[in-house]
What we know:
With about 230 residues, this protein is α+β, with helices and mostly antiparallel strands. Helix content is about 45%, strand content about 20%. It contains nine helices and eight strands. It has helices at about 15-30, 40-45, 75-95, 100-110, 115-125, 125-135, 140-150, 180-195, 225-230; strands at about 50, 60, 65-70, 150-160, 160-165, 200, 205-210, 215-220. The protein has a five-stranded antiparallel beta sheet with strand order 5-4-8-7-6. A three-stranded mixed beta sheet has the order 1-3-2, with helices on one face. A hairpin with a 4-residue loop joins strand 2 and strand 3. Helix 2 packs parallel to helix 3 (about 75-95). The two termini are about 25 Å apart.
Amino acid sequence: MEIDPQIGIDHHVESPWLRWEGTAARALERAKVGAPVSAFELAKGLGLEIEAWSGAGAELDADAQVIRVNPRVRLVRRHGLIAHECGHWVLRIEGDDSEKGARYLAGAMLLPRWDFDLDLKRTAWSLLKLRDRHPNASAEMIARRIVEVREAVATIIDNGRVTSRVFTPGLMVEPRLRRVSRWERGLADQALEAGAEVRGDELCYAVPLVDGPWRRVIVVCEAEQLSLRQR
Length: 231
């Protein structure tokens, strides 16, 4: 496979995410769960109990085989937290535990690659349609998962400030694409104004997620289409 000098995957770089994809697939098979995945059922299938606690977020007690999670946290967030701790659990079993790995596995298990790949084809990557198909995954997790399984860029803008810009692992990105372009910001502004998904290209769009004074926009773009827009 030839690699475009500006956009492409460098298969010669270290690829821990390929190993993590295999780990996620084995965990889902072991737990006997499939899309749409419930993190509660995933934990149960992996032999882990869920207990309520008053702390922030969640924690794994590996010795007791228990995940403790605060029930006051909104439900979709709880799914993400539990999936993250399940990630730590399966990585510990395989002797490969890390925070980065658990974060990757949380998305890879809540959004199984095979099912998610089919859904991307059916929905033209639409974040809102993907949320309908995978209700236990947050919009941010879905956007990051798109970037993991497609050559793409996802940008999160909170109250006008870029808080995250994520590229496909191993994607060879020219320097100008590392910054959010004026075109992407314009797309985000249009989405906020319309209060709905706005597409600037077939696989480039912005989605507003407004919660009271909190104004978040997620911009997702297929890497090649974004590159062509910036030439």
